[in-house]
Design a protein that fits this description.
The chain is α/β, with parallel strands linked by helices. Helix content is 25%, strand content 33%. Strands 1-16-17-15-12-9-10-11 form an eight-stranded mixed beta sheet. Strand 13 and strand 14 form a beta hairpin. The chain is globular and about 55 Å long.
Length: 287
């Protein structure tokens, strides 16, 4: 498992009966998690007085119950600073487990010994973007949501990257990739973090199991002659890590050689000798 275990401002305190208890800086949240199917004693004292609790509805979705939580706050990871705020469908604007991948590709970028151009697709609020830029890469950040792209800019500014070579684009990821192929542009690394289901800025429908492989095939055409890495993420329950390995081997390894490693991504749980699974990642490198 790829484990994000270097956080100081974030931790999973406990898990039980479909929920996880988390500390985000100075604030404690209770949020639902479909992976937490076990029912265990809620021993952590923080269960009794969280700052906010997201209640899932039996009809889908849900709503926040706030006790003592600001509208926005920040947490840090090494030299990176992220803005957080509770918004629809339980999210805060950051997936902390991805720090395991930030550490991995940041080392590759720093040790490359050459300029590195990174394409970050479905880039959300820019966790991977700021990590790659802090490591020294030039990053193209693409997301269909104007609000998420603005949020990413704020995270970059808070991380001291206002003047970093980051290009922000509000666009449908597939259409952007198709245009980049026509333009003849290339990248040394690609990060892809697609949702299970979504819509582009003009209503384009994205369904992961139908669209993921074709997009990986397309993005392979954007890789430079000496690509550094490709990272695929999936939060979809039922997508085993081996699925990502197969996609990378079919479309990347077959063209460039290199090696693939795929596994679950996870977070340590403070009050249990356990890891909380948080999806899967597939990593390709030329090494």
């Amino acid at each position: 498992m790829f484990i994000a275990d270097r956080w100081k401002d974030y931790e999973v305190l406990d898990t039980s009966d479909g929920e996880k208890l988390e500390r985000w800086g100075n604030y404690v949240l209770v949020r639902p998690d479909p992976q937490v199917i076990w029912q265990d004693v809620r021993a952590a004292k923080e269960w009794k007085k969280p700052n906010a609790h997201y209640h899932r509805s039996n009809k889908g979705g849900g709503e926040w119950e706030f006790f003592d939580l600001p509208e926005e706050w920040t947490i840090s990871y090494d030299e990176l600073t992220f803005h957080l705020k509770p918004f629809s469908f339980k999210h805060t604007g950051l997936f902390p487990e991805q720090a395991a991948n930030w550490d991995w590709f940041s080392g590759l970028i720093r040790n490359a010994g050459r300029p590195v151009k990174v394409l970050n697709l479905f880039a959300y609020t820019g966790g991977a973007t700021v990590a790659a830029a802090k490591a020294g890469a030039a990053v193209t950040h693409v997301d269909a949501s104007k609000g998420m792209v603005q949020w990413a800019k704020e995270n970059a500014a808070s991380s001291g990257l206002s003047d970093a070579p980051i290009r922000y684009l509000v666009d449908d990821c597939r259409k952007f990739v198709e245009r980049e192929i026509r333009r003849g542009n290339h990248y040394d690394a690609i990060i892809m973090d697609p949702p299970s289901y979504g819509r582009g800025p003009n209503g384009e429908v994205w369904k992961l199991e139908d669209a993921f492989h074709p997009l990986v095939r397309l993005t392979a055409e954007l890789l430079s002659d000496e690509p550094l890495f490709v990272l695929l993420n999936s939060y979809t329950t039922g997508f085993a890590p081996g699925v990502l390995s197969n996609l990378l081997d079919l479309e990347i390894t077959s063209k460039f050689g290199g090696t693939v490693e795929s596994d679950e991504v996870g977070l340590p749980v403070r009050d249990k000798k356990a890891m909380l699974p948080c999806g899967s990642s597939g990593r390709w490198t030329r090494q």
